[in-house]
């Protein structure tokens, strides 16, 4: 697939590299440091280019949105038209300006907010509550366990596409419903922060156990 | 320990039985059907009795609150005094009257609400987002994995007590911070509902994987 990365930081940059190495065509965009984009392209060994967010949205069939929340309102109006009919993966977290708390929740969510800003796109919430270290490592495996990656959205075809990309990234895709379920995936990021603050020494991830 | 069960339904009844079988002294209370309480006492093979919620609160050193949310406001004023200086495990979910959505969240939580109603108690949020089927089965194991049980509260000593009861119930206790973290544990129950609605055939639980 042709994947646009909007926000090539710890999450976007690392996921883009995973997908490039899995054989997808990736365009990185959105870094305050151009040399960062060049570095990602070099690491992607042939499957990646760099451009502006606008160029990336025109290039991509699937777009990963992985910018800090304050940039979402700045970026989306200019990108909206080039994102029509495309699948947009919302990996953002709707945090307060100090990055400490969720700014939206309970009767709304970041995912639903992004969906309202992009009414012509198919927004799927995913990748917002996994530590970047998991994406930056060689493998997603936890012992012999493939970790879960929870995702939600309203459009079944878009969710199929995202489920494939989740699998290609080494996770087990777990469908948690409509885009409204972003109200439950965004607090999961806060739970992740709390566990980090508790002083855990190992890498960790929330996963579904089944029996 | 002496454990009071307030609300002896699927969650409270099953947890009370687990703890009775683990050797704790349990008093069951709070069922619309008195014969249900008798049945639980019989299954507990010697370590349990039944009584009113008030009697149970006087009996217990630790109290498990596992009633539907609308009953919380009805019960707590009468129980508040007998719960002073005791550890109260809040296993409730602050749902809307139709039981569909969370009624509280983002800048408040059910756990913080219960803590405000019981200012003299040490409230610890736990057991609110695990399916009753897990408590009702012979074992908590998922293959060779001990599943996580997330808990939070403000008082370290009360959290130690609850961590012990979580272990005695067969789970790995995972501390997620102060009672404020109830804002992240209550949406986890909603995520549980979404996964159930997705048609999953197996029993499941959210757990922390570590590496």
Can you walk through the features of this model?
2 copies of one chain form a homodimer. Helix content of chain A is 39%, strand content 20%. The mean pLDDT of chain A is 97. In chain A, α2 links the parallel β2 and β3. With 211 residues, chain A is of the alpha/beta class. Chain A has an 8-stranded mixed beta sheet, sandwiched between helices. Chain A has a single domain, classed as 3-Layer(aba) Sandwich (Rossmann fold). Chain A is globular and about 40 Å long. The termini of chain A are far apart. Chains A and B meet through α8 and β9 of A and α8 and β9 of B.
SSE layout:
Two copies of one chain form a homodimer.
Chain A: E1 2-6, H1 10-21, E2 25-29, H2 34-43, E3 48-50, H3 53-59, E4 62-65, H4 69-79, E5 87-90, H5 110-117, E6 122-126, H6 132-136, E7 148-153, H7 156-168, E8 172-175, H8 182-197, E9 204-210
Parallel strand pairs in A: 1-2, 1-4, 2-3, 4-5, 5-6, 7-8
Antiparallel strand pairs in A: 6-7
- The proportion of strand residues of chain A reads 15-25%
Work out the radius of gyration of chain A. 16 Å
Q: What is the CATH topology assignment of chain A?
A: Rossmann fold
Q: Please tally the β strands of chain A and state the result.
A: 9
- Second-tier CATH architecture of chain A: 3-Layer(aba) Sandwich
State the assembly state of the protein chains.
homodimer
Helix content of chain A: 25-40%
Mean pLDDT of chain A: 97
Biggest sheet features of chain A: 8 strands, mixed
The CATH class of chain A is Alpha Beta
